[in-house]
Amino acid sequence: MGYIQELRELIDHKRIILPGCIAAIRNKKGQLLMQQRTYPHGVWGLPGGLMELGESTIDTVKRKVMEETGLKLGELSLFGVYSGQGYQCIAANGDEFDVVTIVYTTCEYEGEVEVMDDESLGFEWFDFDKLPDRIAGTHSKIISDYIKAAPLLN
After folding, report:
1. Pair 119, 39: CB distance under 8 Å
2. In DSSP terms, which residues pair with 122 in a beta bridge?
3. Cα separation, 55 vs 21, whole angstroms
4. Is-contact 93 9, C-beta < 8 A?
5. Given 50, 52, 112, 153, which residue has the most CB atoms within 10 angstroms?
6. How far apart are the first and last CA of the chain?
């Protein structure tokens, strides 16, 4: 059982702060890797997830991307930290949480993308001007900021 599940057993649905890490990964064509999630069903976002006790943010994003996509990430650059207004969520089961999302970028990875867990319906590389319609609310601003900054990053 993970840290969040253990914490939820103690506090039930009360509002908490959850730190998570995601990666904006670009391929050689400049496309952005996006994950179609099982929850909320069919919504797109960037791969990543929540920290476990004792993990650094870099360890978290590398672990979660490997678990979800099968990709081994190389060098990462910190892109930003997102929190505050607009980053409060209520899960379908009633769990309330504020998200602090640490975003990393990279063009360095090894492996081929494949669905590795039950959190993902699929993955796809998208051109910036052809992103999917249904993007997770907390990821929309991050992706928009990333696209604006992308020419400056590499």
Report:
1. yes
2. 36
3. 11
4. no
5. 50
6. 39
Residues 6+ apart with CB under 8 A from 28: 107
82: nearest Cα among 43, 153, 139, 36: 139
Percent residues over pLDDT 90 in the chain:
82
Contact 36, 117 (CB under 8 A): no
Record the pTM.
0.92
* Coil, strand or helix at 15: coil
Determine the Cα–Cα distance for residues 38 and 36; give it in Å rounded to an integer. Answer: 7
Mean pLDDT of the chain: 94
Work out the pLDDT band at 137, boundaries 50, 70, 90: confident
Using DSSP, state whether 121 is helix, strand or coil: strand
- The one-letter amino acid at 73: L
Residue 48 has pLDDT above 70, yes or no: yes
- Please tell me the number of Cα atoms within 13 Å of 94 on its side-chain side: 5
Task: Look at the block and give the residue holding tokens 């990279």.
Answer: 106
Alpha-carbon span 150 to 105, nearest angstrom = 10
pLDDT tens track for 56-85: 999 999 999 999 999 999 999 999 999 998
